[in-house]
Write a structure and sequence with these properties.
It is a single chain. The chain is an alpha+beta fold. It contains two helices and seven strands; from the N terminus they run E-E-E-H-E-E-E-E-H. It has helices at 87-97, 144-154; strands at residues 49-60, 70-76, 83-84, 108-114, 118-119, 122-123, 126-131. The strands form two sheets. A five-stranded antiparallel β-sheet has the order 3-2-1-4-7. A two-stranded antiparallel sheet has the order 5-6. Strand 5 (118-119) and strand 6 form a beta hairpin. The model is unreliable at 136-142 (pLDDT under 50).
Length: 162
């Protein structure tokens, strides 16, 4: 036997060593294989989702081998994981739910994926917050007929020459 020759392993040599997974009938995205403690854009399935604020908390979002980096997170009743807040989403939450964060609890907003979000000079997409619009309360534009009708209703003196 040649001492420099290593026999090639056969498939059956490893048949009991590692579990085999049948991937037929399963559809996964690669990002689903990477665990995350926080809400990701993939969790929204490219759909607008109405969410209810459950809590707000400041947490260390740094990796284990990095110095601490504290950021605010917001937990929604509809998701298990919280969303890490950036300044854009904090401003949008404030506009939608008010400046006092206590008033945010129980408040509802929409989450959606904005594919044009940039980070580090690259377009990576991200989660954005949007205020809810109530049915029937869309901003009404005042037309000329409405303005003229209001003016006619307030006219009391027909002698004015204009």
């Amino acid at each position: 036997m040649n001492p420099h020759h290593c026999p090639q392993p056969r498939d059956e040599d490893y048949s009991n060593a590692l579990p085999r997974y049948d991937m037929k009938g399963t559809s996964m995205k690669a990002t689903e294989l990477i665990p995350s403690k926080y809400l990701r854009q993939e969790d929204l399935n490219d759909e607008e989702t109405v969410v209810t604020v459950a809590s707000l908390k400041k947490v260390n979002v740094a990796q284990e081998d990095e110095p601490p980096e504290y950021k605010w997170t917001i937990k929604f009743q509809e998701f298990e994981r919280p969303l890490v807040l950036n300044s854009t989403n904090i401003k949008r939450l404030s506009k939608a739910l008010g400046d006092d964060t206590e008033s945010w609890l129980g408040g509802q907003v929409k989450l959606y994926v904005d594919h044009d979000v940039e980070f580090g000079g690259k377009v990576v997409g991200g989660i954005r917050v949007r205020a809810l619009t109530r049915k029937g309360t869309a901003a009404k534009t005042t037309g000329d007929d409405d303005v003229n009708a209001k003016l006619r209703a307030t006219e009391t003196d027909d002698s004015v020459p204009f």
